[in-house]
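@channel sequence for tomorrow's demo:
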Amino acid sequence: MRFPRPRTLFVALISLQALTAGCVSISPEARRIYMVDNTQEVSACTRLGHISAQSMACVDPPSCMSAAAAQGRNQAAKMGATHLVATFRGVSLTHGLFEGDAYKCADGQVGVQRMELTAPNPSFVGCSKDTDCKGDRVCDGGRCVSPTNVPSSR
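structure tokens (generated this afternoon):
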């Protein structure tokens, strides 16, 4: 019995990998989806649903995982998502696997950006509550002032 040469096996393996790599095309809508690994980035957004995708059979783990992520992006695009939070990326014996959650975010309402937009101005000097003031002073309109009419508790 004659075995194929190692070079022939290598060429066959590379050819198979080239044929199976890039089998998933990403739609134009899916290309606009932001891939994030952190739910803080979508904390101000609406969750649309869970995504579960797998690639076609392949031999190269990185290309398998990329193909599965592309499938996930396409699914999220069909749901109208703007963001996709990856919760799992991996490979089975023959397939790439992707799990995630699709979110729709309004312009300027992405979690971290929204927190920055609504945070108080750090250059503001003053108070926002009575405990920000020293002693018996109280906060009045952003300024610490001595109480003028303190009701007696007797």
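heads up for whoever presents: The helical segments are 6-20, 28-31, 61-78, 111-118.
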